[in-house]
Design the sequence.
């Protein structure tokens, strides 16, 4: 008995020691890996610390651009640092508070006004002029540019056009006669045409899904905003002081009805609609431009089609919201002019080579990028390049990012899921936004 | 003890030296505790009376933040959701822990150590891993659970017919409770098991000699002998329920339609997404007061029950 107890004790001690050794070796290995990955700034170069919040395909594309710049520049080295998406803006603000802002950062265009009001940003055009960096701002064509100009100064430069596109499966649609001679959907003449086409798809293949759109989050918010603009309403529905809403009530309610009809063909919440689309189980899918690069990689490009979000009510008016990633110059009293100039030089390089960023799936913000061979050779871009003319930014407010506002997106979700009437949805949106905008 | 004896006790250099050494050992902890716990707590309380967006100077607003919260429909909804989670999860977590401990402690069960390890093992996983795992399992169109139900003929095979575990507002709380119980019930099991093994064997022997069966032994000896453990775990469970955040935020993001947005998520969104640090702090202290009141009531009720 004593020997057994002793043996049991020895075994437990051995297990404990081995576990500790495993933990220690893992920790050492990770530390070694981290040390190996630690970037070393080449001698004689000015380091520019650049914060971004991009992962996935966006992150990979950005990494390529930065590596190419660093390989070709003899005077500047950009340290590309990806921050956690959820904590990004908190970190940017607290860094500004502590005087440790990065030299360059990304901001969604909708956040620029809020960051400006918080004193986090510097005017880019003013700094470029002061430090002798030449850049033609008139070539920046993203509609989001309006959100970046405050008090007649540029506080951000949009680097892309982020919006929603309609991806469709040609191999499923063609046998039903739902594509035109150019391979584009022929059912976007009106909302009723779209709904009728979905009915045809449903009857032909009951087990497949005619159309999927996200029923929550900023995607549904963008869709409603699109329908609101399609009614001819002024996209800027905020008061002059940006503290309350001034909707055209009649048009807002009309647009909610359109949204409700549009979503009547959407199946209940799919969290993996994209995966089902790649498995040929979905005819058409509303997705962000940020998934285009992944779609192009995973789906046979002969089968995949991409067009802008359709203008189902009025083909002369915008049909969806646009958000943009933008480059900003954070305020940092500890940064010297040499580093600021280097940051601006990289900013200029990035925007002037915007076609390279378009590889991630977004449309370029810089007009000349559309004419480059590189952009023209990117797969499937010709289908949705026109989106630049069919989108409009959300109205900007310093107190609220409207595109993620739950005051809008949750009532919309309730509406399309049949939990709320159109009138109640409108009332809840107005009440919620007025409260949130007041700060 | 006489006054002289007391004076000698107090003035004894050895006693003073001993205490000084003890205080010296705990001084680093005290210093860090003050710096990283008490100071932020006090500072947070001050922030709750101010309007502050992190970057710009604070602006004193008195009780305005508290008043605004009390008028905010989302504040009350979030509080209600937290109570919902408390009601849904407390009994399964406690009963589950108790019955698992009974099972693992049973003389009839072979491989007790294995079962103990299996029941406890989810507890060592991080919230992000279990959330991602269960989100995949409960996915309506591609998830394992619906897939198994369909293959067993318990669910219509059509891809359009699914159980929406996480997006049906009528069942989402059951799903979250399932995830939470699976993840954390092992902790309660361990506590109950340790206490069960302290119950004198003689009680069971006497009762068995008097003809008591296993069920009677459990209800009349085991269960009542663990009265204090029930009270302690209930106390801890209620506090933990008020602080629930991670698994809900990662699995449903507070949806569908905001139906599972718990109070901590409301605080997080107010402070770190809207940069209303004043309101966020005020909400935190209101939660603190609510937990304090609930805990006080609970302790009083438990004390009366013990009497």
Sequence:
């Amino acid at each position: 008995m004593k020997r057994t107890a002793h043996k049991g004790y020895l075994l437990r001690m051995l297990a404990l020691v081995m576990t500790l050794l495993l933990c220690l070796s893992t920790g050492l290995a990770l530390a070694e890996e981290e040390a190996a990955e630690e970037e070393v700034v080449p001698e004689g170069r000015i380091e520019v610390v650049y914060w971004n919040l991009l992962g996935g395909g966006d992150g990979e594309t950005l990494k390529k651009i930065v590596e190419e710049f660093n390989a070709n520049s003899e005077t500047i080295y950009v340290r590309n640092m990806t921050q956690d998406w959820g904590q990004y803006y908190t970190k940017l603000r607290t860094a500004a508070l502590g005087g440790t802002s990065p030299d360059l950062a990304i901001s969604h265009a909708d956040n620029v006004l809020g960051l400006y009001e918080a004193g986090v940003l510097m005017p880019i055009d003013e700094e470029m002029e002061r430090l002798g960096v030449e850049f033609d701002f008139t070539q920046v064509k993203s509609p989001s540019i309006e959100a970046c100009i405050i008090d007649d100064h540029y506080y951000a430069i949009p680097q892309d056009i982020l919006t929603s596109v309609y991806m469709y499966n040609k191999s499923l649609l063609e046998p039903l006669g739902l594509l035109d001679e150019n391979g584009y959907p022929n059912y976007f003449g009106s909302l009723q045409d779209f709904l009728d086409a979905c009915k045809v798809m449903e009857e032909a293949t009951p087990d497949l899904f005619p159309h999927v759109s996200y029923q929550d989050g900023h995607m549904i918010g963008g869709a409603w905003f699109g329908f609101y603009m399609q009614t001819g309403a002024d996209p800027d529905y905020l008061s002059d002081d940006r503290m309350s809403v001034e909707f055209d009530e009649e048009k807002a309610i009309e647009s909610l009805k359109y949204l409700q009809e549009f979503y009547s063909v959407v199946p209940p919440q799919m969290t993996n609609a994209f995966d089902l689309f790649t498995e040929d189980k979905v005819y058409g899918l509303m997705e962000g431009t940020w998934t285009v690069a992944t779609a192009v990689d995973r789906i046979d490009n002969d089968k995949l089609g991409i067009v802008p979000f359709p203008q189902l009510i009025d083909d002369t008016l915008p049909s969806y919201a646009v958000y943009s990633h933008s480059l900003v110059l954070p305020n940092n009293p500890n940064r010297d002019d040499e580093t600021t100039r280097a940051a601006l030089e990289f900013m200029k390089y990035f925007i002037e080579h915007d076609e390279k960023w378009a590889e991630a799936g977004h449309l370029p913000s810089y007009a000349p990028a559309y004419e480059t061979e590189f952009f023209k050779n990117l797969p499937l871009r010709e289908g949705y390049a026109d989106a630049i003319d069919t989108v409009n930014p959300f109205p900007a407010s310093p107190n609220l990012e409207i595109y993620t506002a739950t005051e809008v997106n949750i009532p919309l979700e309730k509406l399309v899921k049949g939990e709320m009437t159109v009138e109640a949805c409108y009332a809840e949106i107005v009440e919620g936004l007025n409260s949130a905008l007041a700060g | 003890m006489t006054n002289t004896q007391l004076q000698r006790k107090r003035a004894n250099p050895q006693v003073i030296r001993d205490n000084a050494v003890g205080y010296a050992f705990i001084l680093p902890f005290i210093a860090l505790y003050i710096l990283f716990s008490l100071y932020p707590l006090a500072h947070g309380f001050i922030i709750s009376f101010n309007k502050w967006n992190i970057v710009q100077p604070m602006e004193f607003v008195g009780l305005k933040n508290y008043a605004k919260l009390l008028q905010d429909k989302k504040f009350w909804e979030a509080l209600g959701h937290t109570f919902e989670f408390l009601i849904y999860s407390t009994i399964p977590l406690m009963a589950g822990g108790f019955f698992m401990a009974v099972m693992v402690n049973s003389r009839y069960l072979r491989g007790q150590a294995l079962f103990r390890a299996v029941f406890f093992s989810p507890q060592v996983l991080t919230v992000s891993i279990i959330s991602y795992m269960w989100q995949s399992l409960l996915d309506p169109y591609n998830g394992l659970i619906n897939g198994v139900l369909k293959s067993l003929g318990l669910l219509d095979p059509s891809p359009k017919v699914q159980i929406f575990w996480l997006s049906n507002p009528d069942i989402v709380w059951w799903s979250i409770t399932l995830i939470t119980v699976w993840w954390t019930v092992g902790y309660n099991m361990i506590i109950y098991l340790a206490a069960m093994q302290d119950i004198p064997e003689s009680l069971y022997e006497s009762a068995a000699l008097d003809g008591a069966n296993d069920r009677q032994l459990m209800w009349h000896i085991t269960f009542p002998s663990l009265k204090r453990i029930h009270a302690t775990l209930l106390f801890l469970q209620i506090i933990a329920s008020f602080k629930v955040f991670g698994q809900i935020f990662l699995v449903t993001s507070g949806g569908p339609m905001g139906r599972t947005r718990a109070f901590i998520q409301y605080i997080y969104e107010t402070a770190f997404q809207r940069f209303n640090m004043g309101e966020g702090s005020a909400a935190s202290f209101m939660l603190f007061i609510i937990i304090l009141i609930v805990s006080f009531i609970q302790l009083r009720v438990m004390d009366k029950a013990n009497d």
